[in-house]
Amino acid sequence: IVRNPAGRIRLYCKGADTVLLERLHPCNQELMTITSDHLNEYAADGLRTLVLAYRDVSEEEWEVWSESHRSA
Asked: Where are the annotated coiled coils located (predicted)?
């Protein structure tokens, strides 16, 4: 989780494509298809793949998460 120079909070996440891709918002089906094709090509070559995703988090969401994280 980082705060960018404009003050916005951004959550970054990396992980297996099988886990992260199903959690993404289906905003651009063409891009998802192209990405899946690339991942399949890499896997066919025996390469391991990871996916990177991000989401902007509101100040309110950050405060709730931060407080629960501190108390854990």
From this structure: none
CA distance 18 to 53: 13
Dmax (CA) for the chain in angstroms is: 45
Residue 68 has pLDDT above 70, yes or no: yes
pLDDT band at 49 (very low <50, low <70, confident <90, very high): very high
Average pLDDT over residues 5-33: 90
Determine contact, residues 26/67, Cβ cutoff 8 Å: no
Average pLDDT of the residues in 49-71: 92
Q: What is the C-alpha separation between 10 and 6, in angstroms, rounded? A: 11
Q: Can you read off the two tokens belonging to residue 35?
A: 């990405």
Contacts of 50 (CB under 8 A, 6+ apart): 14, 15, 16, 17
